[in-house]
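Aim 2, interim progress: modelling of the manganese (II) ion-bound target.
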Amino acid sequence: MADIGIDLNRFILEEERKHPNATGSLTQALMSIEAASKIIASQVRKAGLAGILGKAGKTNVQGEEVQKLDELSNEILIDMLSDSGEFYALASEELDEPIYPEKGKNAKYVIAFDPLDGSSNIDVNVSIGTIFSIHRRIGDGVENFLQEGYKQVAAGYIIYGSSTMFVFSTGNGVNGFTLDPSVGMFLLSHPDMKLPEKGKIYSINEANEKKWIDENLKKFIDALKDEGYTSRYIGSMVADVHRTLIKGGIFGYPADKKNVNGKLRLLYEASPMSFLITQAGGKATTGKEDILNIKPHEIHQRVPVFLGSKKEIDQLLSFIGS
Ligand code: AHG
Ligand code: MN
Ligand code: MN
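Predicted structure of the complex, ligand included:
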C-alpha cells in the first residue's frame, strides 16, 4: 500500500512499474486527464466571476470569449486528450459523434467522458465534476465504445467540491487524491477506498416518486425510512456517488414516465461509476442486470442506475428484482 501523501503522478508511475510489460501509454493517458482536470478546476474556482470577467460584452480582459463552463470543460478535455496522442478516439456527452484525433492513429485506448457533471449546480456554487471511462481499442469505429463496462481499463472522476479530488481505479481498488492548491499537486488522501457493507443514507430524487415506473421502489424507500435512514440528494452524480463511496448507502436514478430508460448515460456516467463502486466493494445494477455487464448499443444510451453498499442493493433487488 502506497504511503499517504504520495502524489498522483508518482502513484501512477509506481503502479506501472508493477507491470513489467507496460509501455507507459496508460500512464501518459491518465496524466493527460490529470493535467486537463487541473485546468478545469482552476476555471471552476472562478465560476462566479465569469460574469464580471466577461462584463464587456462576452469577452474577458484578454479579448477571449467568456464561455459556459460545460462547453469550456469539453474543449479543454478534447484539446488536451487529443494532443496527448494516447487516445485513438474520444466520446463526450457533449458531442453527437466520437472524435478521432490525428495524433492518436496508433493509440491503444479510447475514452468516454462527461466533461462537466451536475451543470445545474454551477450557478449555485455546489459540487460538480468530470467523469471518465477508458477502454482498449478493439477496432476502427464506434465498436470501441460499445464494449461492456467490466472491460474498462480505468475509470474515475474529478470532483470540484470544497476541495478538488481525483478518484480513480485501474482495476486494483480505488484511490482518492486531493489537490493541494498551494503546490498544484494531487496527493493521496483516500487510499484503497471501500464502501461500508451498509450505510445510513439513501439518495434519489423523490420528487419523481409518482412517476416511477416500478411502484415497488416506493415500498423499498419506505422500508429504508422505517429503518431510520436519512436522505441526501445533491443532483450532481459525481457528488452523490462520492458520498456513497465514502459513507455507503444507496444512490439511484430510476426509470420514470418521463425518462423511461432513466436519465443517466451508460458510457459517461453509469458505467465508470459502477466500475468504481464495484472496485470499492459495492454493487451497481439497473434493477434487472449488473450495469457492468451491459453491452451498449449506442453511445448516448441511458440506463436506470442503482449503486451503493451491498446490503442496500440486495435489499433493493428483493423489492424490485425480476
Ligand atoms: P449533467 O450535468 O452532466 O447533464 O448530469 C446531470 C445528471 C446527474 O449529475 C444527476 O445525478 C442528475 O442529472 C440529476 O437529475 P435530476 O435533476 O433530474 O434529479
Ligand atoms: Mn452528468
Ligand atoms: Mn455533463
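DSSP finds eight helices and twelve strands in the chain. Residues 25-44 form the longest helix (20 residues).
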